[in-house]
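Subject: for your reference before the review

Hello V.,

The reviewers asked for a structural picture of the protein, and I figured it would be easier to keep everything in one thread rather than splitting it across files. Below is the amino acid sequence we used in the manuscript, unchanged from the supplementary table.
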Amino acid sequence: MARVCQVTGKKPVGGNKVSHSNIKTKRRFLPNLQTKKFFLAEENKWITLKLTTDAIRTINKNGLFNVVKGLRAQGQHI
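And here is what came back from the structure prediction:
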């Protein structure tokens, strides 16, 4: 499961590519994942997370420490 956001849990979904002549073929919609390094000041260390751009906005809004604390409460190793 390489293409999964660590914060939001977004992953690829399936759908149809629809041509001009309305022919449907299967395709995948991939999340907009970015690998980003953050400095966690409370623990004085750098952490690397694989996030969607939506999750980066969530970290900007709620703060990195609160997001990491929530992830650890869910059982993820960070």
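For the response letter, the relevant points are probably these. The chain has one domain: 13-17+24-73. The first strand starts at residue 13 and ends at 18.

Happy to draft the paragraph if you're swamped.

O.
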